[in-house]
TrEMBL record:
A GO term, aspect molecular function: phosphogluconate dehydratase activity
Pathway: Carbohydrate metabolism; Entner-Doudoroff pathway
The protein's required cofactors: [4Fe-4S] cluster
Positions that bind [4Fe-4S] cluster: C156, C223
Protein name stated in the entry: Phosphogluconate dehydratase
Domain of life per record: Bacteria
Length: 604
């Protein structure tokens, strides 16, 4: 089944735009594949170093040239809930590899930081750039050229995009992504949000807030709201990089372990030493990328992926734009209501039918390319399933349920929550911006109000606490882009603006920073491009300027004449405070090299 004409038109546009870069990329992939990653290309000294720490069995296997070797890239650490479950995965993967006649080695580790820990803190200014560090760290691990395929252990916000960039850069190797799964359900998300707003208003203390947060984030696994981490898992599955049905199975369960071992066996099966060679650079193409964008919109996924998907696609020679994402959004309905655009969490989504149900609905509606290659073989319909544990301890798969288990959480195509996706591009005399509309009620999608300009999120917080902004306004927070300070998320502002909206004021946010996958009920025009430090008009907005944010029409304007704006000088911010501390001095070069948000905010 082919995708309907609107989706095919965007795909063809991407294909034509990408032709020169994609052809050059595929030529590099084919050249690398022809040389092979077999151990015989290494000198005896190279090879001896490569397996010196292995056991006798693995040494003997690697000394020849007929046994496939998996390179494991892991983001394990035991501080962060999402990555702690990866601790036993290398042992499981090595066991599965030996049982299948192969070998597996941990090729390298990559850093994994948590935006939840660094929100509102100086460390958040390293967050976006950590994606590119992760890509480079993974490349270092794979550069030893000891491997016939790679498996990538990662879950959260910047980790999976960074790993994907590395995987596509090493496109001559098969690549399988192995998730750890979400933590079990804790405190309901609406109750967590309520306590956060009460704390912002000073009605409850830190002790009550910490208790609520601890009940929400209470065990191993990803956070259960539908932010960037869980959007990552959806993307890896709908783009064919996971084994079918593996994204949202809880950690430390027999099914999770069975899926991990199965993924290792599959990675071995698709190396060049077998009959199903599937180099990831050939596997991923423009259709796969479009499928990812469709899934992002159908689930109301993270706005961060309007940056990450562009960078990921570019690593495979594919040139994706914000306009492509917006045009797909216009043709893809919203099928999921998961917090922050609903009350359910990702476990409820999975129990209602999850990705298998959603992929089947989108395929039947012609909104996905079915004729793609995946790590599981040709065709995306293989992913319209539900994974279960068989009596023998292995994974078995059944067709996705015919009906949603809860239509308030996961809707069939015929009963979509809204006819368009959750992400729009705003355009106007201020430049371009992204807005996530899926959680914003219709009456809040058009805001016309005077600007109040801030150059730090702390300044807005102080104004709120002083009672100075109890009125209609559009908060403009600038000098928050990748070139200025690494483009931190400003999610700490969500409760404050939510309080003001609940008091009846018409409020919105306009920023060249990020607002995260947890963008909520307040309209937020984010990723404004060009950013203030790049000469963007956002740097010319003044207190009191009338602004108009219209998410329905897709416009963002400062209501000042072109002549007036032309004559204004660019406001300058003192950025000296973000040059040092908690490692920020090490990232000065990244800030100088970073591309614009609509180009992926990458340093390479």
């Amino acid at each position: 089944m082919t995708a309907r004409r609107e989706i095919e038109a965007v795909t063809q546009r991407i294909r034509e735009r990408s032709r020169p870069t994609r052809e050059a990329y595929l030529a590099r992939v084919d050249e690398a594949a022809s040389k092979g990653a077999h151990r015989t290309v290494l000198s005896c000294g190279n090879l001896a170093h490569g397996f010196a720490a292995c056991g006798a069995h693995d040494k003997q296997a690697l000394a020849g040239d007929t046994v496939p070797n998996l390179g494991i890239i892991t983001s394990y650490n035991d501080m962060l809930s999402a990555h702690q479950p990866f601790e036993p995965f290398p042992a499981l993967i090595k066991e599965a590899a030996r049982e299948a006649g192969g070998v597996a080695q941990v090729a390298g580790g990559v850093p994994a930081m948590c935006d939840g820990v660094t929100q509102g803190q100086p460390g958040m200014e390293l967050s976006l750039f950590s994606r590119d560090v992760i890509a480079m760290a993974a490349a270092v691990g794979l550069s030893h050229n000891m491997f016939d395929a790679a498996v990538f252990l990662g879950v959260c916000d910047k980790i999976v995009p960074g790993l994907a960039i590395a995987a596509f850069t090493f496109g001559h190797l098969p690549a399988v992504f192995i998730p750890a799964g979400p933590m079990t359900t804790g405190l309901p998300n609406d109750e967590k949000a309520r306590i956060r707003q009460l704390f912002a208003e000073g009605k409850v203390g830190r002790e009550a807030l910490l208790e609520a947060e601890s009940k929400s984030y209470h065990g191993p696994g990803t956070c259960t709201f539908y932010g960037t981490a869980n959007s990552n898992q959806m993307l890896m599955e709908i783009m064919g990089l996971h084994t079918p049905g593996s994204s949202f199975v809880n950690p430390n369960t027999p099914l999770r372990d069975a899926l991990t071992k199965e993924a290792a066996r599959r990675a071995l099966a698709i190396t060049s030493l077998g009959n199903e060679f599937t180099p990831v650079g050939r596997m991923i193409d423009e259709r796969s990328v479009v499928n990812g964008v469709v899934g992002l919109n159908a689930t109301g996924g993270s706005t961060n992926h309007t940056i990450h998907l562009i960078a990921m696609a570019a690593a495979a020679g594919i040139r994706l734009t914000w306009q492509d994402i917006a045009d797909i959004s216009e043709n893809v309905p919203l099928l999921a209501r998961v917090y922050p655009n609903g009350l359910a969490d990702v476990n409820h989504f999975h129990a209602a039918g999850g990705l298998g149900f959603m992929i089947r609905e989108l395929l039947d509606a012609g909104l996905l390319h079915e004729d793609v290659q995946t790590i599981w073989g040709p065709g995306l319909r293989q992913y319209a399933i539900e994974a279960k544990l068989g009596a023998d301890g292995n994974v078995v798969r059944e067709q996705a349920p015919a009906a949603s288990g809860d239509e308030k959480v996961l809707a069939p195509y015929a009963k979509a929550f809204q006819p368009t996706g959750g992400i729009r591009v705003l355009k106007g005399n201020i430049g371009q911006a992204i807005i996530k509309t899926s959680a914003v009620k219709g009456e809040h999608r058009l805001i016309e109000a005077p600007a109040i300009v801030f150059e730090t999120q702390e300044a807005l917080q102080a104004a709120f606490k002083a009672g100075e902004i109890d009125r209609d306004f559009i908060a403009v927070i600038r000098y928050q882009g990748p070139m200025a300070n690494g483009m931190p998320e400003l999610h700490k502002l969500t409760p404050l603006l939510g309080v003001l909206q609940d008091r009846g004021y018409r409020v919105a946010l306009v920023t060249d920073g990020r607002m995260s996958g947890a963008s909520g009920k307040v309209p937020a025009a984010i990723h404004v491009t060009p950013e203030a430090l790049d000469g963007g008009v956002i740097g010319k907005v003044r207190d009191g300027d009338m602004m108009r944010l219209d998410a329905n029409a897709g416009t963002l304007e400062v209501l000042v004449s072109a002549e007036e704006l032309q004559g204004r000088e660019q406001a300058r911010a003192d950025l000296s405070g973000n040059q040092f501390g908690l490692g920020r001095e090490l990232f000065a070069g990244f800030r100088q090299l970073a591309s614009r948000a609509d180009q992926g905010a990458a340093v390479f």
